[in-house]
C-alpha cells in the first residue's frame, strides 16, 4: 500500500526537554490512524509537526512523497480540525466555510460547489446563514470539519475534536466522522486521549508515551495482544487485571503461580519462553473471568468487595488471592458486597509479561 504520510527519525526538543524521540511512522493512503495517549505523551506535538505548526529539531516529514519538513502549513495539502472550533464569530457558517478559499483566490463557482458538497456531507445545509453563536457545540464542530473539508486535501488532521462536547454528542459525532472517512477515503490522522474514540474509529492505533510509540497495530491486536504492560493497562475500561508471580512446572504441566494460587498455562502459544522460576505478570481482561457458571477445570475463590451496576453490564470488584480485581458480567446478574463467588479464568485470552522488561512474552 502507498504511504500517504511518512515520518522519518523525527525528533523535537523544547530546550533541554526531548518531546519526540527518533520517531518513525508510515501512514497508509486512505488510512484512519489514531494517535492515542495521556496528556503530555507527545501526540498533539506530533500532529502539529505534521501540520507545520511546529518545526522539527531533526528528521523529515513526507506527504504524498513530497518532503514538506520546512513547508508552510498552507502548502502541505492538509486540512486541520482543532479542539477549539476556531470559527470566525462575525461570519455566517457559509462565510466560515468559504473564507479560506476566497483568500486562496479559488474561483467563486468552485467555492460554491465545494461549500455545497461539504454542507451536504455534514448535513449542515439549514445552518449556512447562521453565525457560530447561534449553533450548538456539535453544530460548530461540524462547521469546523466542513472548513477542512472544502480545502479538498489529501490528509485531514484532527486534534481532539470531540473533547469539548458532552458524552451523547461525542458518540453521535464519532459515527459521523467514521461515515465521513468511509465516504471520502482520505487519509485521516486523529489525536485523542479517549480510548473509546480510538478503538471505534481507527484502522490502526499508535499508542504513545513520553514521545515514543509503544505499539502500532489495529484495535483488535492492541486490545487482545498488548505489546507491553503500559499498553495493556492503558487500553480497556476498567483496565486489565494484573497479578504478579512466577512460572512453575509440575511434570509436563506449566503454571503461573501467585500467593499460592495456580493458573494453568496449557493454552499459551509460546511455551518455550515460560521457564520455571521466571518472574512474570499475568494479565486478564475483566470480561474474560467467569463467575459461578461455566467455570472449566480450574476454580478459584473470591469475595465481592464493590458492585457497580452499569446497565447492560455489571462491574464487580473482587478480593482474590490477595489481589483486588475487576470482573465484567451481564447486568442482569447482581451480587451484594461480601458474597462468596467461584471464578473461572479464560487463560487462552490471558497475556503474560516479563516482570523486569514489562514486554509481552
Structure, described:
With about 350 residues, the protein is α+β, with helices and mostly antiparallel strands. It folds into 2 domains: about 5-235, Rossmann fold; about 240-355, Nucleic acid-binding proteins (OB fold (Dihydrolipoamide Acetyltransferase, E2P), Beta Barrel). The protein is about 25% helix and about 35% strand. The chain contains 8 helices and 20 strands. The protein has helices spanning about 45-50, 95-105, 110-120, 135-150, 165-185, 195-200, 220-225, 230-235, and strands spanning about 5-15, 15-30, 30-35, 60-65, 65, 80, 155-160, 185-190, 205-210, 210-215, 240-250, 255-260, 260-265, 280-285, 290, 300-310, 315-320, 325-330, 340-345, 350-355. The strands form 4 sheets. Strands 6-7-8-3-9-10 form a 6-stranded mixed beta sheet, sandwiched between helices. The chain has a 5-stranded antiparallel beta sheet with strand order 13-12-11-14-20. The protein has a 5-stranded antiparallel beta sheet with strand order 15-19-16-17-18, with no helix packed on it. A hairpin with a 2-residue loop joins strand 9 and strand 10 (about 210-215). The two termini are about 30 Å apart. One of its GO terms (cellular component) is ATP-binding cassette (ABC) transporter complex, substrate-binding subunit-containing. It is a peripheral membrane protein. It is found in: Cell inner membrane. Pfam families: ABC_tran, OB_MalK. Keywords: ATP-binding, Cell inner membrane, Cell membrane, Membrane, Nucleotide-binding, Transport.
Amino acid at each position: 500500500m502507498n504511504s500517504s504520510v511518512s515520518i522519518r527519525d523525527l525528533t523535537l526538543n523544547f530546550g533541554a526537554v526531548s518531546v519526540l524521540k527518533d520517531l518513525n511512522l508510515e501512514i497508509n493512503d486512505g488510512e484512519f490512524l489514531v494517535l492515542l495517549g495521556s496528556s503530555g505523551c507527545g501526540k498533539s506535538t506530533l500532529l502539529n509537526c505534521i501540520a507545520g505548526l511546529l518545526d522539527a529539531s531533526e528528521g523529515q516529514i513526507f506527504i504524498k512523497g513530497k518532503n514538506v519538513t520546512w513547508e508552510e502549513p498552507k502548502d502541505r495539502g492538509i486540512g486541520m480540525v482543532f479542539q477549539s472550533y476556531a470559527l470566525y464569530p462575525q461570519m455566517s457558517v457559509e462565510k466560515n466555510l468559504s473564507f479560506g478559499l476566497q483568500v486562496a483566490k479559488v474561483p467563486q463557482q468552485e467555492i460554491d460547489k465545494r461549500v455545497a458538497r461539504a454542507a451536504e456531507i455534514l448535513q449542515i445545509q439549514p445552518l449556512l446563514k447562521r453565525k457560530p453563536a447561534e449553533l450548538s457545540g456539535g453544530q460548530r464542530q461540524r462547521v469546523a470539519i466542513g472548513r477542512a473539508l472544502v480545502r479538498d486535501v489529501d490528509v485531514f488532521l484532527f486534534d481532539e475534536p470531540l473533547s469539548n462536547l458532552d458524552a451523547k454528542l461525542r458518540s453521535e459525532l464519532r459515527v459521523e466522522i467514521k461515515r465521513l472517512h468511509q465516504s471520502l477515503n482520505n487519509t485521516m490522522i486523529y489525536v485523542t486521549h479517549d480510548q473509546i474514540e480510538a478503538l471505534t474509529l481507527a484502522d490502526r492505533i499508535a499508542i504513545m508515551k513520553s514521545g515514543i510509540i509503544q505499539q502500532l497495530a489495529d484495535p483488535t491486536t492492541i486490545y487482545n495482544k498488548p505489546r507491553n504492560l503500559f499498553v495493556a493497562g492503558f487500553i480497556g475500561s476498567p483496565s486489565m487485571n494484573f497479578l504478579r508471580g512466577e512460572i512453575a512446572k509440575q511434570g509436563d504441566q506449566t503454571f503461573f503461580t501467585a500467593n499460592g494460587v495456580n493458573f494453568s498455562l496449557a493454552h499459551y502459544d509460546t511455551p518455550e519462553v515460560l521457564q520455571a522460576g521466571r518472574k512474570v505478570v499475568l494479565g486478564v481482561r475483566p470480561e474474560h473471568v467467569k463467575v459461578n457458571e461455566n467455570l472449566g477445570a480450574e476454580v478459584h475463590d473470591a469475595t465481592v468487595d464493590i458492585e457497580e451496576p452499569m446497565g447492560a453490564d455489571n462491574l464487580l470488584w473482587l478480593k482474590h488471592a490477595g489481589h483486588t480485581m475487576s470482573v465484567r458480567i451481564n447486568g442482569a446478574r447482581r451480587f451484594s458486597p461480601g458474597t462468596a463467588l467461584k471464578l473461572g479464568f479464560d487463560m487462552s485470552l490471558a497475556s503474560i509479561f516479563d516482570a523486569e522488561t514489562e514486554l509481552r512474552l
